[in-house]
Amino acid sequence: QVQLVESGGGLVQAGGSLRLSCAASGSIFSSNTMAWYRQAPGKQRELVASITSGSSANYEDSVKGRFTISRDNAKNTMYLQMNSLKPEDTAVYYCNAFWRRFGRLYNYWGQGTQVTVSS
User: Fold this and answer.
1) In this predicted structure, what is the pLDDT of residue 84?
2) Phi (first) and psi of residue 89, to 5 degrees
3) 65-119: per-residue pLDDT in tens?
């Protein structure tokens, strides 16, 4: 069983910063990819950023240059540093971890943390 627990969400003014954390526990395969997704009201969940166990990162275009994804493999923790926040960044942010092993896909989600950016 794998558990992902997000923290760090909250209310911030436009232009401000927040740092999200995702702590993973349980039977986690060492070679995995972790990611942050977000879902705004009335919209589909979208990928914000992802990072491999080797720390290769990718970002959605609207957050490039503002958000930084990172991870500490020793602590099984992933982070999302969000700077220059905009009202359109308001959403529930979800942590995701997945890997393939012996032909099977393992895919896990956290419960989400609310980020609200006021104008």
Assistant:
1) 98
2) -85, -5
3) 999 999 999 999 999 999 999 999 999 999 999 999 899 999 999 999 999 999 9
Q: Are 104 and 31 in contact (CB under 8 A)?
A: no
Q: Sheet harboring 18-26: ordered strands across?
A: 2-7, 18-26, 77-82, 67-72
3-state helix/strand/coil string of the chain: CEEEEEECCEEEECCCCEEEEEEEEECCCCCCEEEEEEECCCCCCEEEEEEECCCCEEECHHHCCCEEEEEECCCCEEEEEECCCCHHHCEEEEEEEEEEECCEEEEEECCCEEEEEEC
CA dist 41 and 65 (Å) reads 24
Q: What percent of the chain has pLDDT over 70?
A: 100
Mean pLDDT of 9-26: 97
